[in-house]
Specification:
Number of helices of chain B: 3
Radius of gyration of chain B: 19 Å
Number of helices of chain A: 7
Radius of gyration of chain A: 23 Å
Oligomer: heterodimer
């Protein structure tokens, strides 16, 4: 960048905003460009998870009874609690973005901390769920066991362990990939928190909070679909 | 949080948050009622309503100043639909032996 400060000042005649990069005409355009880029990334994430949802759909249609039996072995109350936890964290994220836009630094920091805590609560509940699955030998692999589990609604019929193993493979890949996104999100929010504590965000420049927020909400949306698809197949008695 | 600022979106956010929680509760409760083929349909409909609310109001898709954002979202959904529908068309029409 060989542009001299005077050249930049000539482009932005009314004085150069330090947060405004030279190739943008105004802060609004800069913010729009950043959020558009994030939305494009989220579009690729839709396709990333989409392949797994597609595999899930095919096997669910093929082995519905086995999927229902396997789904029933997961603790749906924990799943519902986690859904509520993520929805609450989305609320605190939206507060954080609003606080950054309106220069409420205290609210911004508190919102980011609560978001992080809720993220850890989610992962804690998730690890309890995984622990139960390990205990029950429901983790795909050599020690997998799913013998004599009745198929809901079909008295006398038992789930095929091979097909149940496919369900649990999808369960671990989909929730595991989602949990990985949560861990990355927690990393992003820790960084946002340190930046917020240093007072880096102003109403003119708060793009990282907005972009991080978009990511967090997207991860929430993925969970909104994972919860009924994995935890609530044919639950009724 | 000044109560007198009329442009505060806090109330709107709280309403959306409450709706999302109610949606989660309804999804959870309905799953234990036998509605045969409609269980999955109801669960997915509620999930889609919740996802739309999050996108429109929490992710500020509604009123996004950059119109390209909506094009990106629409194309992502279109390609997801393409992925699912063409794959399912293949599975439905192929003669499995």
């Amino acid at each position: 960048m060989s542009d001299s400060p005077t050249a930049a000042a000539a482009v932005h005649a009314e004085g150069h905003d330090p947060a405004l990069l030279h190739h943008f005409a105004e802060p609004q355009q800069q913010r729009d460009a950043a959020s558009l880029g994030m939305w494009v990334f989220l579009g690729t994430e839709v396709m990333f998870f989409g392949g797994l949802f597609c595999a899930y759909l095919i096997y669910r249609l093929a082995y519905f009874g086995d999927f229902a039996a396997a789904s029933k072995s997961i603790n749906a109350t924990l799943g519902a609690t986690n859904t509520a936890v993520l929805i609450c964290s989305s609320l605190t994220v939206v507060f954080a973005v609003w606080a950054a836009q309106t220069a409420r630094r205290g609210l911004l920091i508190v919102s980011l901390i609560v978001t992080l805590l809720l993220g850890f609560v989610f992962l804690g509940i998730k690890s309890k769920e995984y622990y139960d699955k390990f205990e029950e030998h429901h983790v795909p692999g050599p020690s997998f066991s799913f013998e004599n589990v009745p198929i809901p609604g079909h008295p006398g019929e038992y789930a095929n362990p091979q097909h149940a193993q496919i369900f649990f493979s999808l369960y671990f890949i989909m929730t595991g990939l989602h949990a990985l996104h949560m861990i990355i999100g927690i990393g992003v929010f820790l960084w946002l928190l340190t930046m917020a504590c240093k007072g880096r965000f102003t109403p003119e420049y708060h793009t990282p909070v907005e972009i991080g927020g978009l990511y967090w909400h997207f991860v929430d949306i993925i969970w909104i679909y994972l919860f009924p698809l994995l935890y609530l197949i044919d639950r009724h008695p | 949080m000044s109560a007198h600022s009329t442009s505060s979106p806090i109330k709107k956010y709280l309403v959306i948050w409450g709706t999302l929680l109610v949606g989660t509760y309804v999804t959870y409760k309905v799953a234990f009622i036998d509605l045969r083929p409609f269980n999955a349909a109801i669960a997915l409909t509620i999930a889609s309503i919740k996802a739309t609310l999050v996108a429109l109001f929490f992710m500020h898709l509604r009123g996004a100043s950059e119109k390209m954002t909506k094009v990106v979202v629409a194309s992502a959904l279109f390609f997801l639909l393409l992925l699912l529908s063409l794959t399912m068309a293949d599975y439905a029409s192929r003669a499995w032996s």
